[in-house]
Amino acid sequence: MDIQPDIFQSSQKRISDLVDIKTLQEILDAFTTTTGLMANIVDGEGVSIFPRKGIKKCCKFCRIIYNLEGGKNRCQAAYKRAGKQAALFGEPYIFRCPSGLIEWAAPIVLNDEHVGTIICGQVLMWEPEEFFWIELRKMNQALTNDFEELFEAVGELAIVTGNQVQASAYLLYVVANYIMKAGWENYQQSREFARQRTLYHAEIENRKSLEKHLDNADSFSLIDEEEILVQFQKNGKKAKVYLEGLLSGLRYEAHQNLSVMRAKMTELLVILARVASQMGLAPDVFQAINNHAIPEIYQTDSIESISMLTSKAVDAYLEAFVRTADKPENPNITLMIDHIKNHYKENLIVEAIADAACLSPGYASRIFKDQRGISIMDYVLKVRIEKAKKLLLNPHYQIQTIAETVGYGDAGYFTKVFRRFEGVTPTQFRKYHKR
């Protein structure tokens, strides 16, 4: 998933928008207390995310440099460069600061986006020798001519080994990125809750307007499986818009009833699985989506969470369909499907359907099942059932009339077939979808 650009409108807020600054500071304080090493977090420009009064761990040497004219800007520029290098390599980056101390930068990265850097160190890795003092003077002569206090502060610096540097750098890298990832997930969840609420309230207004227009006539709820298939056969954006509207509509129909909400969302996911099968998606893909989402839907007691879980599952279906969209459908399959949709009311047999594509019945059956994940005759039954479901929305149609309209002379046999596909009888289906 991509980082949304609106979180990063201000460099000072890149990290603070995602996690509690106080919590981060407490973690770094504990790190400093345990190791004796300074630790700070800066944004992409090298500026500390903490209030200045909260920075208490800076060593005396760095406080002197920081307070010299130009010292602050030089430090921040160094942290910015080190952060970029760390992000480029994807691991802690050890460097020597412009004033001569050893520091390391651990990148804070979210989905390949560098949002900040942990700066740690302000130490030496060796005992100062004569060359060190010469070099230190040269490196800082642009800032000051008075080195007495600066040289004195060197005596307070810690001397650490290379192993200590690497271990502490990696520790901070892991901890901070774990916290940031959790913060990002919470942020995304909040955004999704807000988006779902917006869609829901918009659907409420749409429904109110529609009911008023229909003069409070009885309305019906139905997940149109055939329409979902049509939408998925279009581009992904249109399918997503359609399904988001459908989710909001189903939530409206649940009227904040937890049990009804669960049932409706489960029904949608089951139908999506059938659509996925028709479109040739591998069974293990859509089974994995539903096996993950449906148990979670029944474990939560929040309408908002159910809505979000279903939305995530729908997105997973969309991604799976996009991955398979590049696989062109066999034109013979298209010919057979067109024949079925134009003649579903008739007494169709495999031979006639295969003949529409100029294929042998055996070969036609094999390629149809391979690409659609369903047998030819089961697809015929499915088309008939989808047509019947639409007709059942009209209470004026008798069951016998509907059976005959979709190709069944016997209402009893039609009822058996319908129950096989939907798990309920036509009468029960009509009653369930009537408000």
What is the fold's blueprint, element by element?
Blueprint: H1 21-35, E1 38-42, H2 60-67, H3 71-89, E2 93-96, E3 102-110, E4 113-123, H4 130-140, H5 148-154, H6 162-213, H7 225-232, H8 236-254, H9 258-278, H10 283-299, H11 303-324, H12 331-343, H13 350-355, H14 361-372, H15 376-392, H16 399-405, H17 411-422, H18 426-432
Helix pairs in contact: 2-5, 6-8, 6-11, 7-9, 8-9, 8-11, 9-10, 9-11, 10-11
Protein name: Helix-turn-helix domain-containing protein
Domain HTH araC/xylS-type: 334-432
GO molecular function: DNA-binding transcription factor activity; sequence-specific DNA binding
Spans of 5+ residues with little confidence (pLDDT < 50)?
1-13, 210-222
Percent of residues in helical segments?
A: 55-70%
How far is it from the N-terminal to the C-terminal residue, by CA?
A: 39 Å
Main beta-sheet strand count, sense and barrel state: 4 strands, antiparallel
Side by side, the strands of the main sheet go: 1-4-3-2
Global morphology: elongated
Q: Would you list the SSEs in sequence order as H and E?
A: HEHHEEEHHHHHHHHHHHHHHH
Strand proportion: 5-15%
- Give the radius of gyration: 33 Å
Number of distinct helices: 18
CATH architecture of the largest domain: 2-Layer Sandwich
Number of domains: 3
Average pLDDT figure: 78
Query: Would you tell me which CATH topology of the largest domain applies?
Result: Beta-Lactamase
Name the CATH class of the largest domain. Alpha Beta
In total, how many beta strands? 4
Q: Which structural category fits the helices and strands?
A: alpha+beta
